[in-house]
User: Fold these one by one.
Assistant:
Number 1:
Amino acid sequence: MTERLRIAVQKKGRLADDSFALLKKCGLRFSVRGGGLLTRVKNLPIDLLLVRDDDIPAFVSTGASDLGIAGENILVEEQLTTEGGLDADVDRRLGFSRCSLCLASETDGAIRRPSDLAGTKIATTYPGVLRKFLKDQNINAKIVEMKGAVELAPSIHIAESICDLVSSGATLEANGLSAFETILNSEAVLIKSARKLSPAKQDIYDKLVRRIDGVTASSDSKYIMLNAPKSALADITAILPGADAPTVIPLAGQDDMVAVQAVCTENVFWETLEQLKAKGARSILVLPIEKMMA
Ligand code: ATP
Ligand code: ZN
């Protein structure tokens, strides 16, 4: 029987859909319907372990899973709070579920900066990261550990401030709070232990991460096509964001014009198109790239 690589993924929540989407873009065929803990990938020797995000670092560390996808915030918190530490670390960043762990207090209150926290109470679901921050900053404050709904703590006088995840800031604002310090910037990460994989699993891992890198690299990349006056070719290539040597093709019946095609590895904004047009480029097309392999 062939060995199967196991990846722990959040079953339901803010990470789940993007994690499944990434794996599908990597060509994995699976269905997450039904209440099962384990889902078989139909076309590759991979199984998905569908769990709560908080459990993912420990599953990777103990070997219950070979890989995991979770927020860096969860990984760092579990590394700091698990007795004896964890054999689980960031293998690569995945570029989605970006958020920050921030300190926040009442918008018109007295706490404006970390030093104002001395002698006060801070509510959080991240006691490990917060304790380390307070220690590094030499601030003596009390941590009130909660399991959720941290943003309500100041209004019910459980704590003067909170340490919580922020993405748009709308939840804070709705509760009359503002962030005044960022403790950790987070995004989804692929988690792996330092243990050596068996040769069979290593092969599947190599194939998977090559595809993951191809998906992440192509997500910001665009294929750009345009017609340009030969005389403006140097100016136009210089504007193309993150492009290597472009392909230049003659245009039938137009000796002074060429067609230019290039892969731009950075975002192509409207401003870029306007600059290209100002240099004489015409018929500009920007196309999404689905996959890339060097
Ligand atoms: P679970 O049931 O799996 O324990 P949860 O309720 O702890 O889920 P979610 O709210 O689904 O967690 O968030 C999962 C992860 O999504 C977070 O740990 C974080 O990395 C990321 N995330 C991205 N944006 C936000 C946000 N605005 N608020 C909270 N988490 C966010
Ligand atoms: Zn969780």
Number 2:
Amino acid sequence: MSAKNPSTKTPKTPPAEAAAPAGPAAIDALLHEKRVYPPPKEFRDKANVRDEAIYKQASEDFEGFWAKIAQELDWFVAWDRVLEWKVPDAKWFVGGKLNASYNCLDRHIRGARRNKAALIWIGEPGDRRTLTYWDLYREVNKFANALKKLGVTKGDRVAIYMPMIPELPVAMLACSRIGAVHSVVFGGFSAEALRDRINDAQAKLLVTADGGWRRGQIVQLKKDADEALQGTPSIRHVAVVKRGEFQVHMTEGRDHWWHDLMSDAEDHCWPEPMDAEDMLYTLYTSGTTGKPKGIVHTTGGYLTGVYATTKWVFDLKEEDVFWCTADIGWVTGHSYVVYGPLANGATVVMYEGSPDWPDKDRFWRICEELAVTVFYTAPTAIRAFMKWGTEWPKKHKLTSLRLLGSVGEPINPEAWIWYHENIGGGNCPIVDTWWQTETGMILISPLAGVTTLKPGSATQPLPGIVADVVNEKGESVPVGGGYLVLKRPWPAMLRGIYGDPERYKQQYWSRVPGVYFTGDGAKRDEDGYLWLLGRVDDVMNVAGHRISTMEVESALVDHPAVAEAAVVGRQHELKGTAIVAFVTLKEGKQPSPALMEELKEHVVKKIGKIARPDEILFTADLPKTRSGKIMRRLLRDIAEGKAVGDTTTLADPNVIARLKSRYEEQEG
Ligand code: WT7
């Protein structure tokens, strides 16, 4: 393992007390972050991981280390071999049998956790539901039986398109109980995006809701689902949760109300013994080429990975109240709202709506009311909180908080310090957790009881994780920048791309042979700390979620007025990256503000709101190489208002000057 164990070497930087104050003077520190935060003694004394020997144990006995933590789960049949690894295919806990919903529910209801809150849910309008482990167990069993009654069997795919309501984790756990593979599609995706994902997975059943609440508005999920279902021949039945008094159309024979299905369902369903390598779910994410990839996760390794990392990274204790603010439609919600915390028997908070509804203190109100102890959110949210001002968190007593987390993109030191001071009251460690849909579990993160923190650095690979920073040739870079790669398999790693083994090999295992390529750049400092630098491919990170430039381009070109489009990401104060599209129109089509709006809406229709371009620039031509490749690098320079880089390979050098002046004109 080339990244150093944090404990073997104390950073040569001054202790936290000597830290530079946050404020204008701190801007310089962005480039050379020197502040460090050792674990507070009170935290370290009680931490689940307080002995740094864990790193050494993991590297000395890699398989034994993972086997030991896997044993904390309940297995119906023990495994024969911990790991079978033949690049690029990993099999973990070979021969073992278990059930994910059993591990999240059944084993807790036999003891003191039976009446413990599993889910505390708050709807945006202010309604609230608490489900104990026993309640959740019953709901899951009933819905599992309902699924069976609708003809769903082991191995079938079930699509789930829902708001953040308790029935969403219930549906996921019910699938896992009977061995069906769930495919959750984020409720913010469009009808077309839903349709593509249903078809790719050949889902048999869809679970949705009449609607949900977002910023005081109804999100009409059933309406979008109906549109999607016009082109999804594999779907036989639809289960519809009644979230509100929303008017929806129910198709006779196909659509069933959730409450009707539940009212006559038996409340016990035997958990299907699943092979450790049986599929648990697929989840779609963007890649560098147009079509979203269905990332495949299996049962034994995934559950072990999320169970372990929840315990280590979030330090969960019996009395904790854990709030991961991510929507379950993303992997963060799968791993750290549902499977990780429930496998640990934790109390999980779930909130339906927006952080600024009805006011900008909604999150802090919830933290105070529910006495949240561990809070996990994204830098894009933290930047919004900073912009809204400290008066909002100041309205609330946030003293229950003891640990904060961040995920989705690099957190800049200023946001880190703000979060530490204004939310954590200066004494909650922050875990900056790096991972991906593909990795399933957190891979790079501090362990708050042992790691000295540096604002802006995700610090070190977790025990049992072997990461490296390499150059173009795949050689390790001891200090400096390069590509982030993973050199050994880990339990929750993806097992492939649904239906596309070739793309799996190509995308992740071919850049540096035998090594997993993350697509992220990273820098390693003198102390062996890792600093994530963002994507190195054509994937943008918008508000903590990946969107491929290609996908937005395809959506634009799909519009009848568009001849060609090139999309780039530009730095954005709140979202991290803003989407800028350069568009060439077809002969005879005229640019206009109305058309600009229409194109933006067209992208929303094809993909969803998250992919809406922030800016569109109409241009007669795009900068291309002589071989006809669009030079996105130059477009990015223009969009960021920078001096345009090397243009020697341009077919027509004048294009850039024309584009640049047009862009500046439009930007005013
Ligand atoms: C990409 C994965 C995994 C949960 C959310 C996003 C970026 C994620 C960090 C972090 C810097 C981060 C990377 C990664 N990313 N966490 N702590 N620091 N960058 O999942 O949509 O699969 O995106 O998000 O670029 O590759 P995802």
Number 3:
Amino acid sequence: MHESELLARVPEGLLINGEWRPAEGGRTLDVHDPATGQLVKQIADASVADGKAAMDAAAAAFPAWAATPARERAELLRHTFDLLKDRAEDFALLMTIEMGKPLAEARGEVTYGAEFVRWFSEEAAHVQGRYGANPEGTGRMIVSQHPVGPCYLITPWNFPLAMATRKIAPALAAGCTVVIKPAELTPLTTMFFAQLLVEAGLPAGVVNVVTTSTAGPVSEAIIGDPRLRKLSFTGSTPVGQRLLAQAAPGVLRTSMELGGNAPFIVFDDADLDKAVAGAMAAKFRNVGQACTAANRFIVHRSLVEEFTERVTAQVKGMKIGRGTESGVSIGPLIDDRAVAKARQLVDDAVERGAELRAGGQALEGPGTFYEPTVVSDVPEGSDILREEIFGPVLAIVPFDDEDDAVRIANDTEYGLVSYVYTENLARGQRMIERLETGMMGLNIGVVSNAAAPFGGWKFSGLGREGGAEGIHEYLQTKYTLTPNPFG
Ligand code: ADP
């Protein structure tokens, strides 16, 4: 399909109480293509009053949606999943246009994002309670699950579809209503997905979408509303910390998927072919713009030169360009700030003595491109080992023994995911117990799966998305005691 035809089908307004409407005062914000810098579409730019209207709609719709039979909620999600699969190519192209990821990866994200809708359509009808005697035998204990209430969902720009479905689907499955605020850089995919939910029969007010260039004030007003019961956020740790503080007065349930600084450890007993393939996937998926992206390659000294040469050869063969062009595996970074950050981290490492093996340059515009880059022998203390790179830069540090590798890997406030390559089972098991991360890839470079509990330890967050755990983020437990009916 022609791009302009697709873009014309994406709504421009705010979805509030089942209607697409303009923002207060007709304010708009511009969405750009990061590969060309060109304007893609102008959409509604919500004010604080618009945010409050969305909150009103979510609160008003909650009682009826919570009382809707789980099977009906499940079928709405299943219908949405089927529609999403039918429109997979449209969603993939839209993500490539607004976010920049190569089309093949955008197709992968449609599959991944749709899986959350299918998974939670299945989970909706499987929420269970328990019934049993108390140990004294004097009473009966009933444990039941209830939707938490209206939720506010804030999503980032790097996975425009999957981050939205990973929150919306479990919320709806549990019987919650939502206001969702997508990232202002990539709002179109969420609007397109919301339109699909409406087409599938979503009642008015159950999902409300506010797109805004003033995320701070609009969010603060919604988070401060006493009817809100839950906040789910995916984004950077500093913003997550600020939102947690805002959520405290309302004692809101919170889910926080924050930053990462993933170690990727290659032991001397690793299968190097697998490790190189895993490294390329763990680093360059989404042009490195993923909180699960491997940030630090910690490689045993006996293999480090061969590992470095092999990844460098692959990196030098990567094609850079707009994600719609065939063969491209490195699209643009999201904006100028992202390019400046990659440049600053690489320059700092090189100034401290790291060796630049490939790349290292930002490209001339239009578009915000940074070359895929390899730096080896990165000295401890370099910024690139402490900060989340969020770009196509592979930084390598040698190590000598297992304790050394574990110490380097855990030397960060983050704890989202780790990757370990070893053919030694006992060593792999030791790593499961020693690495301080919420997820781990053991001889594999990508761990995301709708059926798994995604989430981090330490500064990487609170709560889990996906898996059996995912729906419980949107449910609250009630325990009831009744006397022994036999007296
Ligand atoms: P990133 O660095 O990946 O852009 P952010 O944490 O800045 O991550 O953004 C993630 C999401 O948080 C986006 O939807 C953004 O609009 C939103 N956001 C940013 N600042 C605030 C804020 N002060 N209050 C609420 N949401 C915010």
Number 4:
Amino acid sequence: MTSTAPVDVSAVGTSTVLTGIGSLVTNDPALGDTPLGVVPDAAVVIEGDRIVWVGPSASAPAADSSFDVGGRAVLPGWVDSHSHLLFAGDRSAEFSARMAGRPYEAGGILTTVEATRAASNAELAAMLDVRVKEMTAGGTTCIETKTGYGLTTVDEVRAASVAAAGGVDAVTFLGAHVNAPEFASDPDAYLDLVCGAMLDAIAPHVQFIDVFCEEGAFDEARTRRVLAAGTRHGLGLKVHGNQLGEGAGVRIAVDNGAVSVDHCTYLSTRDIDLLAGSSTVATLLPICDLSTRQGPAPGRALADAGATIAIASNCNPGSCYSPSMGLAVALAVLQCGLTPDEAVSAATVGGARALLRDDVGVIAVGKRADLQVLDAPTHDYLAYRVGLHLTHAVWRSGLRVA
Ligand code: NIG
């Protein structure tokens, strides 16, 4: 395989045909023998920000420009449905202490809250830009990110505004990340703020609301209150649940028709059955489990039960400072028991479901032109060659971005 220097195809012409695709993952079961809809020896035509043609190379139409991927695999860009990118500060010492035996606890979040409050909007925007570029370089083309390191109305709203201006695709309000330090002796007063004035102020800037349902964060009654407030504001519901132990997170999420419950590291058989019988997406965060020395999450059991699974990076400064969706996919295979097909599906169309989107995560006519070229002949290599950076080229909304 030869390497090709990046070009902005939008500057060359209005349509581009990608040829020489050894293996094309479409996620369109109508194309191919498996749900992944793999088409061998394929071509894709992009026009503007959309995909306008998908099929066998031999019958590809002409386009204004062409790009030969040299037999490599092409996949939908990763849909990273869980990250915490609006933060300042450094917690490497906490990481090292954890590697020396100290357990991960929600309390470390407050270190980041202090640093994030002290950062200016311009500083937060610059740090977000670096993180988005890192994600893009790894094949991620659709990003969700959360607030949750401000914990005052002003700081939460500015995090949401910086995120929206910084080119992420979905923003989630996570005022209920941990209790704010000012309310140490009166957590219910903080919850009143989160579910009242803070939510009123931030709702126009976000699509989802999230709550960390865990010991040291929010208990069952408080979690239910946050979700009820989000429902009243018409936001999609998300829950951080079952991260540090079995708990009520999955049950509450399913009861409330949440879009997703994220982490799912410690699940009872009942939790798995509840997820399988619901439309709530089980979002697995395998790099976080590795980085906190927990898990692995029971991906195989979830898949066998028929639950909808997403895989995301959970890039954040505490539990998981990695944006690598390629690594998340590899770990989902090697540690959580998914097949390479299942893991790729979970990191693309699964992520799209966790964000209530049908325009990303698939390669089909009319969808957003978000594609990644792997430096490998098939997607199996993501786990087979774990640890290698396999991203060769990336298009987002029809533009070559890496
Ligand atoms: O998803 N669990 C809560 N929130 C993040 C970690 C945040 C932090 O430690 O800073 C997570 O793991």
